[in-house]
Amino acid sequence: MSRTDEGPLDRPIVVENLRYAYGGRVIHDGLSFSVERGRIVGLLGKNGVGKTTLIKLLMGFLAPLSGACRVLGEPSHALPAQAKRRIGLVFEGHLAYDFLSIEATERFLSPWYPRWRREVFHDFMDRLGLPPQHLIRNMSEGQRSQVVLAAVLAQDPDLLILDDYTMGLDAGYRRLFLDHLVHHARAGNKTVFVTSHVVQDMERLVDDVILLRRGSPAYLGPLNHFMRDFRRFRLVAPDADLRAGGTLHTVEREADGTWSIYAFHSAEAVGATLRGAGIDPAHLSEVPMTLEDAFVGYTGSY
């Protein structure tokens, strides 16, 4: 019996020294991280840093040039059928079979998943207010998204991989799905790996974050540790010429002429760096921030 026939592994996702490139462009070089069972992990980064490429690698749509990428204990590019049945995937849009109706979608999918939860699928579908015979192709984008997400949760997967689950959902349904997602993960000790452009959702959803930044090692850690250790400061020094480096992770000139400084260091350490550069830190103050603020500060604004 292979390890994928056993219960969920302690680390459902393990990436070690991963390298991948498109042509001559290196996307990931030496990327390493692991995801612990039962955690909800958010993958964040600007467009073009390799988030979707990493999802494709995890699902076996791409193979690493070197290094290892293992999912449920198996090489991601050679997942056996029994492992795939334990993975729920939302990737680049909607159901491929949009010619099916709501009821036909369930009839088609449910035999593939031994733990299919009919009540979960029907709970979500009842909220649509559409007859079971309604075709997927005749739905709005948001309605199609609801069918996709309902089908994924009904599979009762041990590992959920969601590549931007928002897909046209309004705020109310997005909140409903997040509540169900958290319940699914907590109640069954499931693991969730998620990307989203709605960073504020991540703040109330995830346990851990992976932050991708071009040209820098990935950050991986508990979200509360990141929000505790990464800090934002405001500096009133209109004539200063600031550059990132050393203790200053990122610096941004704001529209009002002040500076935003982001750092993994205390106000005292940042102040010492400023003094060393001949800048008076008398008007340096720490500013509270959301995860969206921290994301922009960590990755840099456009």
TrEMBL record:
The keyword Nucleotide-binding applies. GO terms for molecular function: ATP binding; ATP hydrolysis activity. It comes from the Bacteria. Keywords: ATP-binding, Nucleotide-binding. Residues 13-239 form the ABC transporter domain. It holds the Pfam family ABC_tran. The keyword Transferase does not apply. This is ABC transporter ATP-binding protein. The lineage of its organism: Bacteria, Pseudomonadati, Pseudomonadota, Alphaproteobacteria, Hyphomicrobiales.
